[in-house]
Amino acid sequence: MMGDGKRTLVLLLSLIHHLMRALVCYSQPGNFVLLLQNAGIASMHTAVTHFNTVVFLDRTDIGSSLINLTNGVCRENPNDRVSPHDCTAHSVLFDIATNTVRPLFIQTDTWCSSGAFLPNGTLMQTGGDYDGFKKVRYFSPCPATGTCDWVESEKELLAGRWYASNQLLPDLRVITVGGRGVFSYEFVPDQGLGQFDLQFLRDTNDQWNDNLYPFLHLLPDNNMYIFANRDSILLNFYTNTVLRRYPRIPGEPRNYPCGGSSVMLALDNANGFSIAEVLVCGGSNMYAFSNPAGQFGASQTCGRMVVTAANATWEMLTMPMRRNMGDMVLLPDSKVLIINGAQNGSQGWMDATNPCYNPVIYDPDTNQFEVQAATTIARVYHSTANLLPDGRIIVAGSNTHEFYTFTGPFPTEMRVEAFSPAYLDPSNDWQRPSFVSYPSVIRYGDNFTVSVALPGNLAGDIELTLASIPYTTHSFSQGQRQLKLAVYPTQSTSQGSIFIVTSVAPSYILAPSAYYMLFILHNKIPSKAVWVYVSF
Ligand SMILES: *[C@@H]1O[C@H](CO)[C@@H](O)[C@H](O)[C@H]1NC(C)=O
Ligand SMILES: *[C@@H]1O[C@H](CO)[C@@H](O)[C@H](O)[C@H]1NC(C)=O
Ligand SMILES: *[C@@H]1O[C@H](CO)[C@@H](O)[C@H](O)[C@H]1NC(C)=O
Ligand SMILES: *[C@@H]1O[C@H](CO)[C@@H](O)[C@H](O)[C@H]1NC(C)=O
Ligand SMILES: *[C@@H]1O[C@H](CO)[C@@H](O)[C@H](O)[C@H]1NC(C)=O
Q1: Can you tell me the distance from the alpha carbon of 122 to that of 514, in angstroms, rounded to the nearest whole number?
Q2: Ligand 3 pocket: which residues have CB below 6 Å?
Q3: By percentage, how much of the chain surpasses pLDDT 70?
């Protein structure tokens, strides 16, 4: 899409840029910034909405939080084991533009719950503990100045689900899988189908569990990849048939309470979206949870597997440091950020030590890990990390105590930070693209066009990535997926630096109908995302 002269110029500028970086700073890439000193709650579950707000959600039976409900509202709940009369909030809405929070009202206990965004942009949250065990709640987001709040549904789950995982499906239902002592899955809405027994969850439930918050990845063939403990299967959830069993991952258990994490690497139009690769990183020694005093070293390995390959086998990788409770975030450039967590112990109250202050970024193309600049804030049990539309990662929570505890080691963490990967360095602005126009709706099967401004009349490699918005808790981002879309280049318009890029919408299986962030990348440097609604 550009002449040789221009390409040489781009390469030269890029070379100078890298030389300057190497000379000027030997420091580690990326940086943390404190966004808010006191969010009022420690977020155990976090989700970004398409109104550029972020839902922070903790649990109700934790005593008073540090933020009051407004307008004299209080929660009267004789069944609450701590605060039957509670005038404080246990969920807040964070506004990305102003770094402020507004209290939200939840009625029942959301502790260790699951969630997914519905096609209409509403966050559906399912289950929890105690009086919230079977609850379904909706948060329909609104502009940051609005008053939207949680609504509890009359309709309950079929089974109480505490530590389950959710995924939005191509047919617009949500599947919710597992939970403590629950060896089944169900759909919301359930359409009278009942729940489906899943022997795999029983088989992977050892004496310390190690199978909670199963990792779910919806594959391009419309089957569900499910990983629990050290094993994984391919499930046809339409017929309740286990189609495949994958080899056991070497090393430690990876699910709660061992606190590994998992992503499906970006699906790529370059292979017709036919290849799906799963990356599972970190975990804890099998005996760490039952013997916290032992403070056993966490896992230092990741397993990577092409789950669509007939001969699927784990390729094992060594991370720069040990980690449990790491959050894995798919970045706009399709690399994987691994952030938060600890190097010893396991999940559970006060069960970990030796926090991982340095995130790492894994590059799936080179198989290399790069250690990132450190934070000063320990983010251990019950912490979260989520991609924002501007390319930063919002980092919240960390509470390794049963109640809010601000003394002693690892006090309950109310601070909110953002981590900015190196692609956000101002030194990259000379080639950062930005959207000039884009469709707000992308329809399956249709081509669509965006127009893009490139500074300085440059033109290098252009890529488009579509990123879902996950519900993040306990080191797993439920519903996280990313697609590298086709780019049909393009003619430059008379404006010179404005380029028209044509792409084709992915199928409803690859990208179930929902709001997505659409990023444009120029020489791997991402723009700010725009929100697009992907639909039939
Ligand atoms: C919350 O309300 C209580 C009781 O009215 C008051 O004592 C406290 O200062 C308030 N807290 C905040 C953070 O506003
Ligand atoms: C989205 O759908 C849910 C579930 O049917 C419903 O509760 C909610 O009100 C809807 N939200 C909007 C904005 O229409
Ligand atoms: C953490 O684990 C490492 C690796 O097993 C071990 O060498 C170290 O002693 C452990 N730290 C603590 C505090 O137990
Ligand atoms: C799996 O099969 C593919 C295609 O035949 C081959 O390229 C690849 O090396 C094999 N991988 C393993 C781990 O055997
Ligand atoms: C989309 O655009 C490509 C490239 O111009 C073209 O080959 C294809 O036929 C178009 N598809 C549709 C559905 O218009």
Answers
A1: 9
A2: 295, 297, 343-344, 353-354
A3: 93
